[in-house]
User: What shape does this take?
Amino acid sequence: MPHYKLMYFNLRGYGEGPRLLLHYAGVPFEDVRVTFEEWPKLKAKMPFRQLPVLEVDGRQIAQSAAICRYLGRQFSKYLVPKCPIEEAMVDAVHDAHKDFQYEIRDYLLISEGFAQGDKDEKVKMLKDVVLPAANKYFGYLRGLLIKSDGTHLVGKTLTWADIVIADNLHSITIIIPTLFDGQPEIKKYVDGILQIPAIKKYIEERPETPF
Assistant: This one.
């Protein structure tokens, strides 16, 4: 079995998807949580001067989406559809989720203290940016759930994108508790994924960190 070493900050963020996939598969790995003090010395050693980075027997893979796709295919017996078109659809769904993350990124950074912004600015951003982006995105997800079995986004089996997206949406609801208001299908979908035993166990035991 390859030796996996995942490097990211002591946050969930873009590193939590790979952590979840490795825990779900029951694969041992080094979970290296880089401090902000350590980061300047490590930065030049990273392929794109960013984290997360996954080392596989010493070879580096950068970019969170690439890491998740790699891990999903490594564990393809569980997490990648056999149909090439459905496999591409899984990639597309994850890319769409990253678009949504980018749309609401500023609000999350301000909420968690990583960027400056006052209360009035947050209220305006929530109303004018975050909730419209969420309503648009959840409309896409509802359409996918209708086409599948209602419990997965693509096909009728669990994929790596289900795990990554459901946990990330759950993390966002910690910051925005009203995110799923009026979205029963989305809440049911997320709750169902998070009840999978291996995922539930990891979430219950993982370190408490900022988003």
Summary: The longest strand covers residues 4-9. The chain has a mean pLDDT of 95. The chain has nine helices and four strands.
